[in-house]
Structures are given as structure tokens and as C-alpha cells.
Amino acid sequence: MTAIPPTGGWTGRSVPRVEDAALLTGRGRYMDDLPITPGTLHAAILRSPHAHAKILSIDASKALALPGVAVVLTSDEVRRLSRAMTVGVKADVEAWPIAVDRVRYVGEPVAVIVAADRYIAEDAADLVEVEYEVLAAVVDPGAAAELDAPRLHPSLSGNVINERRFSYGEPDEAFEGAAHRVAVTVRYPRNSGTPIETYGVVASYDPGEDAYDVTANFQGPFSIHAVIARALNVPGNRMRLRTPQDSGGSFGIKQGVFPYVILIALAARLADRPVKWIEDRLEHLSASVSATNRVTTLEAAVEADGRVAALRWDQLEDCGAHLRAPEPATLYRMHGNMTGAYAIRHVAIRNRIVLTNKTPTGLNRGFGGPQMYFALERLMQRIAVELGLDPLDVIRRNLVPAGSFPYRTATGALLDSGDYQAAMTRAVDEGGLADLIETRRAARAEGRLYGIGYTAAVEPSVSNMGYITAVLSPATRRKAGPKNGAQATATIAIDPLGAVSVKVASVPQGQGHRTVLAQVVADVLGLEPGAIRVLADVDTARDAWSIASGNYSSRFAPAVAGATKLAADRIAEKLKRVAAGQLNVAADEVDLENGRAQARGNPENAVSFARVAAAAHWAPGTLPDDVDQTIRETVFWTPEQLIAPDDEDAVNSSLCHGFIFDFCGVEVDRLTGAVRIDKYVTMHDCGRILHPGMVAGQVTGGFAHAVGAALLEEYAYGPDGSFLSGTLADYLIPTVMEVPEPVILHYESPSPFTPLGAKGVGEGNCMSTPVCLANAVADACDFDDVTLPLVPARLADRLAAEEKPSREAPTRAAAAAKPGERKLTGEGSALVAAPRQAVWDMLLDPKTLEAVIPGAHGVRKVSSTRFLADVTLGVGPVKGRYRAEIELSDLDEPGAVTLSGGTDGALGFGRGSGRITLAETAPDRTTVHYAYEAVIGGKVASVGGRLLDGAARVVIGQFFKSLAAHAGGGKGTGSGLLARLRRLLGRGA
């Protein structure tokens, strides 16, 4: 039965999503759900516990001796079988998917262990012995840019791997004649997307063909396929890349799986078996892709009424330890849009890319936009404050004028369509700004901290792949040849029974490809959406694709769906010419409607769609002379507006430009610093809306993502490069309890540059919302500057009066921490049922130490005061094997001794010391008192502050409890950890 389409067609309506039936009933097919070949091996990755260190040696002999282990892949094999990955700038540096000679961030792969199952591989990873020489680390981008900073790559002259300066118009003259100069310096932190599904790869190698076959939840293939093939030393047709039909989210960061594609492919080659690797959550947080952190100083030349004449940008982009493709995309994606939604004709830009001892960065939802708009929109608010103007008036006076579209910006973007003033007016009126202003007045009258924030932004979509070449000088670009465009690919196929299938070179991560494309094709072919089947995976050996293919930069609706529309149009025109002969009418008189081809003036003169569509299969000889076939049509579409950067460095970095205007009201608690979002209004012009329900979902999801970035999320590092937010207990993401429902409004100005008039919408709030909330908090608290995330502790410190020092002196002053150290301290006591001399002798006996050290496998006495031990310890979700070295010093037999030493293992490292005193309190009774300080790093440190102190106390306590038990029993004195534990457990003192 054929459904009658609603008036106006299927497109633009919220039809039920095709994808939901499987997803809501648990029938999704994600990476880890796919069947694997019998005999497939499994990989685990040994990662660096240090942020910066030389690799002195790697001994995998013990791991290889473990039954079930097939291969241990290290840099030796990687360098022998592959080439370094492409670096996005011209620099004397190599980037490998594994640590070569030295490690440069906590979590960098050092070895890949392949075994019969993941459990054996993980156990074997603990047996790989790596000897490091720890080097000084640098994590602050400003410090890293200094000439005397620790250098990450000896082949470079410093850590600034690229610097470019740009000038558009006459910025110097504009600043000289300005009535006012207003500037801000902002630091945008690292954050990421934390999708439910982590990275996954299954790879095999065919030695006869010298070819790799890889399945990965990658969101390409785009240009990274060429990077992978080049690194593996094979032509592109021998690097087959496939993706699952379902992906548990990406938000851009699954482009970062490609180094692991290379590693697992090489592991499969060495093992001569297929190899599977699924990233765990700890790995994903500490070592996958995060957004860049950026330090920006932005200055404006401002007229008396708040109009901005010129901008001067200074951007320092922290891309982590390696500059991996497609970086520096995050820095240059917004290059054509550096004036945002404003008509500012004079711009100067200084861009620097710096390397630090942090994870390499990549694409994250809205990449480049959040960092750029946080500076620009904070500046617009500061202009209003410093000049005593209404922030709304400052925004209005600077907007691109209505009626001037397409509008060319100073830096080269071609803004396709819009009426920013009309959209803003609708948001103010329909969003209830007047009521919100009254709410602020009333709240402040009661002494509450209430503020309103505003943001205007242009949301670019469909990236011009040539924008990244703006990082090169014009001369270098001319030598390399032009790069530009945004090619999208779509195929419409009809089978012998007339059934229609759609295939696009774009991997969905929740955008509803199957639903929207079915709507688009159904409208063109006169069918119902249920009659169209959309295939939503990618196979580079089977599908039509190009260097720009993939799902990124909000390109689905404008580019992918647009190309699908063109393919449907092309095949529809052929079908009409076929039907014209059967209906005995002219081709331009044939309509495809309601599952039929019919004469426009006589609907009864009709033939079924299936009969017309299948003619090329069953009776190709009956086709008109001007119709070759109606079996398959493939369209490759790239817009003419996307040209390469010119010799003046102007570039139209994206095809489409939506408009966003947001305002919000927030209240900040004076005592706790907690931020409550009272109301949030977001206005979007995303061109023609193809599916209102999914657009609302995209906006809501982007808003939730942005609330996390604004209020909670930050990849935190210690000054020594240790990763401090390695679990979801420390890297906090928002839930439905923290995310209010935004008021979503729309203003439609269809793009003249896309086949359907659609623009992107999925990334906009990630660009606009963090700075809108920051502006509201600044307004509420009267702050000149604000730093994300807006966590309560940070705000409370600024709101609270200076605290008076405690009258009680501390009982014990801890030693001052060295830069970069995170100290764990504690003390306690235990009563041992043995004389003091016997306890002293036990502390120097290897067998006793092996019995009482928690997790010890063996203790060897190297000298009279030095011991080596193998230890297995677990802290929270982290458990690993460590090599421990213990040394005794300051011996005062039998009264006191200092124990010091360190541990090193696959999951982290630690060092510390403790003073033990022995007091004989009764015959055959000795009180042991201990006080310690320790420093830890690596993956074990990533479990965060909520677990570390308690875990350290438990481990130390276990040592002395075991010592007491080994000596014949005993109880704590009542003041230490053991005593407190006994009381908590109801066992008395």
C-alpha cells in the first residue's frame, strides 16, 4: 500500500525515524557487535606512565613467554613495516602511531600486545618491562612557546611548530584612529565528546596481495584514508576501510582512531591473523582525541557608539605532543569567519601552533568555533561594559547588514544568506527577553547574583578542504598545487523489481541519515519514504567516495542530502523519458506521484513506478535513444564557491553559514558558586529545515554538550603532564539533571548554494552556548574575566571574602611540593605483638617483606638496605603490576628507620618516603608509628583525587596490618587508619 504524501511533500516534516526501531530494541550493530573471523586475536596497548621520558629499553621476553601471546609490537616493527604519518605543516618532525625513542604524553602507546583473548593480552602488558629516563615536561602553551622550554622534538628548534601572520584591510590605521581600544585575554580549556562507544578496530592482512582489510568506527574516509595507506606503505586500493552501520556517537573525535588503524593493521600483519582492539574508557579519556586548548588575546578598535572598526587576533593553539592530521584544522577552520556575524573590515591575525606534553588533539564538535567565539563574544560584552552601552545594542550595530547577502567577509568567507537583524528581533520578542530583564532586576533587588548573557555567531558548515592550506605561505601553496572543494557523493540504485536503494559516502553517528535521505528521494520519485532503503555504512572498496567524503563539519544536510537530491533528480528525469513512451506523452508532461508515472493532464493515463523503473533490467532494448540506463546514478557534487586560498590568504573556509543568536539568564549562588541556568533561548537560521524533530534533537544535543563544556568538563593536567581527569568521576559530564530544556526558535533563510537550501545545525550551540553562559556569569558577578569551566569552587573562591587563617597550628607541616608534584600524605600507628628488636629484624628480612607488602610476588635483597620487589596493586578501576625499589636509610636501630623508593609499571609510577618509629610500650609489645609522603603519576594518577588519598592510606595500612599479623597479631592504638576502619566496621578499637 502506498501512502499519500502530505501536501508539500515528505521533506520538512518530522516523520518517524527509520533508525529508532532497531536502536530502541537493542538491535543496533555497533563496532563490538560485528562478527569476527574464527581465530581472531585480541590486542591490548601498553601506554606510557610518563608525560616526557626517553625509552632506554623495552624487554618483552616475559610477555612473549606467557601462553596465548602471539606478538608484541614495538616501535622497531612499526618503523620497519610502515612510514611516519603525514604532518599538517612543513616541519622537520616525524609523527608515528607509537612512541619512538621517547614518550611525549601520558597514555602514548609504547607496545601492542596481541594474544588469544583480551585478558591474556592485558596480563602480558604488565610483563613488558620498559626502562625510562624521565625528562622535564611542559604543559602550559605559553611556557612551551618560550625558547628555553623543554623541547619535545629535538629535530625542531623549539616547540612552536608553525607561525603565520595575516593582515586584511588596514588594521594598523584603524587602531591608530580608534576612539577606544578594548582587549581580552582568554584561555579556552581542553574538553572532548565522551561518546558512549569508544574506538574500535578489526584488521587483517593478506600477504599475497600485500593488502589490508580494516573495519573501524571511523567517521571518514575523507583525507585520512590516504594518510593511513601511505603510512602502511600500500596504495589506496590495498587499504580497504569499512565502517559499521551504527556508531555510538562521535562528535568529531572518532577521526582520531586512525593511528590505531595503523597499529592494529601492523599487528595483524605480524601475527598473520586478524586482530581486534576495543578501547576501554580509561584509555579513551587519557589518550584519545580532545579539542585543542587555546590562549587568545583579542583587541578591538572601537568607535564611540560601540561599532568595531578592526580586530587584532593573537592565537596560541596547543595541539599536544604531535601535530596529527587533520590538525591544525581546529585553528584554521574558522579562518574565513574571524569577524563572526559582524561587518568588520580590518583584521590582523597571528597564529601559532605549539606542542606540549599532552595528548595530540583532533576534531571535536564545532571544532575551532568554541575557541574563536569565546574570545570574540567575550570581547563584545567587554566593549559594552567599558563603554557603558547595552550589550544588545553593541551586537546590533555590528551585525552584517540585512540585504547584503551573499556577503564577503574581510578574511574571505562568503556568507550565503540570512537576515541577522530579523532573526535577532524574533528571538528577543518570542523568547521573552523583556521578562528576563525584569527577572534580573527583581533578583538583584533581593541581593541575588543574577545575570544575562548574549551571543551572536555564524555557524559554518561543509568545510572547504582547502582552508587548511592557509597554514602554508602562498608560495608554498603554489608549489604544492591548489586544494579546495567539498565533494559529496550519492548513489541511487534500482533493482529488477523496481525497489530503490540509496548509498552515500557518509557514516552516520546519530544524524538520521536513513530517515532524511528516504524523505528526500521519496519526494523526487513520488514514493513513500518506507519504499526507499538507505545503506548507512561505508566500504572504500565498494562505494563511490572521494578525499572529502565522510561525516564531519555539519555537511550531511547541505552536502550529502543535497547530492542525494541531485542523483534522484537525474534518475527521475530518465524515468520520465522512459514513461513518456509508454504513456504516449512528452517527457515534460510526466509526473512521478503516488508510486506511479502519470500524465499530468490525465492522471488515469499512468503506469506503475516499478514497471518503469525496472525496464532497464528487463527490457533495455525498449529504452529511448537518449536514455542509457535507469539502474544506477552516482553524483559527485562540489560547490563552485569553495575555491583555494588566494595569494592574499583570503579563504572561504566553509560553504554554508547559519546564524545563531542566544541569550540566557543565570543565577550564581553567593556561598557555593553553583551556577543555575534559569532560562536559555537559542535562535537558529539553518536554512531549509529537512526534519524539524531531528533538528530539535541536534540543537538540544549540542546545547547539552556545550553546557558540559561551560560548567563541568575539562581535561586537567598536572604541571608535570600527569593526567588528572581520567575517570568519569573526575571528568564530569552533564546529565538531564544539569541540562535545562532550551527554548528553540527558528528563522529560515534557505542557502542559494546547496541543492536543498539546507545549512548545518549540529555544531552551533557548542560554539555559542559556552560564551553565552560565561557572559551571563560575568554579568551576574561583575567579573572582568571568566575562565571555563565555571565550576562552583572556582567561582566561590572569587566571590568569597579572604578567609582568616586558622587559630590552630597544624600538628604536622608537610614539606613543600616541588613544581608538578601531587603529594599524598598520611600517618598512623599499629600495635605489634613482638619485641621492638624482633620488629626491627622483620623490616630487614626479605621473606617477611614479601609476606607483608600488599600484592608482592617476590622480594630480593640487593644490599643490606636495598630491596627490589614485584607488586600487583589495584586502585579503583585500575590494577597493574609494578616493579618496586625500597631503600632503608637514617637507621637508628631498633628505634627508627626511613623507607624510601619508587614503583614503575604499565599503569603508572610513584615515589615516596616514610619514617617509621618503634616504641616498646610493654613487654613483647611494640607500637609502630608511620608518617609518609608520596608522589604518583601516569594512568594510576588518572583515577583522580576522589580515590587516591584513600587508596594510599589503605595500602600503607595493609602493610602494617600484615606486619602485625605476621608478628603474631595485635590491634591499632586507636588513632590510626586501622583503628578508624575497625570502628567503622563495628569491631571496636
TrEMBL record:
InterPro entries the record matches: Ald_Oxase/Xan_DH_a/b, Ald_Oxase/Xan_DH_a/b_sf, Ald_Oxase/xanthine_DH-like, AldOxase/xan_DH_MoCoBD1, AldOxase/xan_DH_MoCoBD2, AldOxase/xan_DH_Mopterin-bd_sf, CO_DH_gsu, START-like_dom_sf
Gene3D superfamilies: 3.30.530.20, Aldehyde oxidase/xanthine dehydrogenase, a/b hammerhead, Aldehyde oxidase/xanthine dehydrogenase, molybdopterin binding domain
Keywords: Molybdenum, Oxidoreductase
Domain Aldehyde oxidase/xanthine dehydrogenase a/b hammerhead: 25-136
UniProt-listed SUPFAM superfamilies: Bet v1-like (SSF55961), CO dehydrogenase molybdoprotein N-domain-like (SSF54665), Molybdenum cofactor-binding domain (SSF56003)
Enzyme nomenclature, EC number: 1.3.99.8
Annotated Pfam families: Ald_Xan_dh_C (PF01315), COXG (PF06240), MoCoBD_1 (PF02738), MoCoBD_2 (PF20256)
Segments of this protein annotated with the region Disordered: 801-827
Entry superkingdom: Bacteria
Molecular function via GO: 2-furoyl-CoA dehydrogenase activity; iron ion binding
Bias-annotated ranges (Basic and acidic residues): 801-810
Protein name in the entry: 2-furoyl-CoA dehydrogenase large subunit
Organism: Aureimonas phyllosphaerae
